[in-house]
Specification:
It is globular and about 50 Å long. The protein has one domain. It is built from five helices and twelve strands. The strands form three sheets. Strands 2-3-4-10-9-8-7 form a seven-stranded antiparallel β-sheet, with helices on one face. The chain has a three-stranded antiparallel β-sheet with strand order 1-11-12, with no helix packed on it. By secondary structure, it is of the alpha+beta class. About 25% of the residues lie in helices and about 35% in strands.
Amino acid sequence: MKRVVILVGLVLAATVACARQSASDSSTGTASAGLSPIYSPGKCHFRLKLNGGTVSVHNASSFQSAGYYPPGTENWSVPLLCYAGASQDQIDQQLDAKKINGTWVWYNPGAGNVPENPPFTPEQHFHAYALSGSNWKGTAITYDDTTGDEATRGRNLFFCLVETGGSQVLCGGPIPVRALVDPPSTSTLPKIMAVLKTIEFVDASVGSPTPASAAAAH
């Protein structure tokens, strides 16, 4: 009889231990996935893989943004400005470029001596990138400075990430990713792109990601 009681006790203890472990795994799912806490600049809520870096958030009355700073002394960072509810024209403005009839042109509504939406020149080495994350689609562009002091000219990155089926938008730029001195510096673009691809928009009210299906339901 004592052996039966001991066996039952051992089974119950194992069951409780498994239940506790399951609850622990559930509550730390974000940590085990390597994602950061939720950051909330303005009406944007997101998390990402920090990989040893840090994020700062600024919520001034007229300016809501965050910034990703890599670990150590690497000389680059990623501004993340919230433009929740931005129209396509506003997104084009943040990208500093827009697509007209399948061709990318410089975003300019026409001001001063600059014509409306001038084309990029071959010397600018314009390039557009289609980006995607867990619950967003995005666009990034790069082009080279062709005016100003040659010693300080560089290649610049602009990007916007748009929540799938939702209103959250994060943009950044201009971000210098390569100096054009002779010889040119090593580009930081691959590292910045790697950070952007880990971003996940979050429904702040429940603290969980907003997949395409859930975002569309809103």
